[in-house]
Prior knowledge:
The chain is an alpha+beta fold. The chain folds into 2 domains: about 5-200 and about 320-400, Zn peptidases (Aminopeptidase, 3-Layer(aba) Sandwich); about 205-320, Alpha-Beta Plaits (2-Layer Sandwich). It is about 30% helix and about 25% strand. The protein is built from 10 helices and 18 strands. The protein has helices at about 5-15, 30-45, 110-125, 150-155, 170-175, 225-245, 290-305, 330-345, 360-365, 390-400, and strands at about 50-55, 60-65, 75-80, 95-100, 100-105, 135-140, 185-190, 195-200, 205-210, 215, 260-265, 270-275, 275-285, 310-315, 320, 350-355, 370, 385-390. It has a 6-stranded mixed beta sheet with strand order 1-2-6-3-7-17, with helices on both faces. Strands 9, 11, 13, 14 and 15 form a 5-stranded antiparallel beta sheet that branches. A hairpin with a 2-residue loop joins strand 4 (about 95-100) and strand 5 (about 100-105).
Amino acid sequence: MLDTTRILADLVRLPSVNPMGRIVTGPDYLEGRVTDYLLGRLSKIGLNPVRQTVSPGRDNIIAILPATIPDAPVFLWDAHQDTVPVGGMTIKPFVPVIEKGHLYGRGSCDVKGGMAAMVSALEQLSVLETRHASVVFVASVNEEFGFSGAKAFTNLLRSDDSESSNEGDDTAKELLQKVVAVGFHLVVVAEPTNLRLVTQHKGAVRWRIKVCGRSCHSSYPEKGVNAIYSASRVALLLESLASDLSLRETSHPCGGPTLSVGTIHGGVGVNLVPDSVVLEVDRRLVPGEDPLAARREVMNYISENCPVDIIEHEKPFLASAGLSSEGVGSAEAAARLRKAVTDTGMKAVEEVARYGTNACVYAEAGLPCVVFGPGSIAQAHTADEWVNLGEVEKAAEILRTLVGCTG
């Protein structure tokens, strides 16, 4: 078994399920096991990784592989540690199985395949005498529900020298100051792109809508206000607005804006009139759209068409403007990765995406980003998630080449 495959299999065996905003606990949840594994693995090759606490039990890992020549460019490689939940899977989620060149398991595609490629590349680069670039590796937490890991890392790059309240921030800042004085020349965000270069993708704003009623015994329903009925009217309004948005003309290659209701929760028992229902809303943005303006449009549409119901809009738990190819240095960054791909004998293909990634956070911080990695987005989050091992190994080769060495 190739070492890159061993790393991937190790990662899949370590559950790192994102609770997705729910209050749940258990051995499968949060990223701690992956964090510990990465600390041990990166320490063995002398990178001296540091923890950056993002929230209780959730730590980014930051490690630096320095260049061996002066005035070398600096690259940031990001791979998130968390996976989506495992409900409904048709395979054992944490038992990596290899069949016909595919490795199966939760996270194998999104995004532990990309993480394995990055870790493998770092290990192979660490023993070389010549490295033409420095690499800052960030294993971030909570990508699947809020991008808080990437946000915590970009906070370290601010010029404010005041002490941070997060454990590990000061150590991480000191580590970064040694290599990033001139800024990053390229950010590679690991996601399943089939080794294509994604230079633009949609943003999103997500929030919860609470529809309020008045509870009473179900034998006298007329004495209460049934929040489920009111929430149903809100859901139908959102469906109507979603249809209108789908007809909105746009010339952007990512396509037009979309709207979706992802979850709905309410009621405590069949013999009680429910007093509240909560809907979670996902409004996808064309790159460059203002997340808060898009949210305001939804809020206004509801209030104009459903004025009698008591509706509360919580603050967004995610607001991202997406990834645009128009940022400073974006063209040069894409050209660097494109050359690395072609230098390994592949044809470099650029495309846009409708999904979102940590790249939107780095782009907002002014960093030039490309989303890139093994696997297909069609396999991400699926019941039998898998990744092509040939692509994982090829991704590692391309990343090594990016640093200027073919090993």
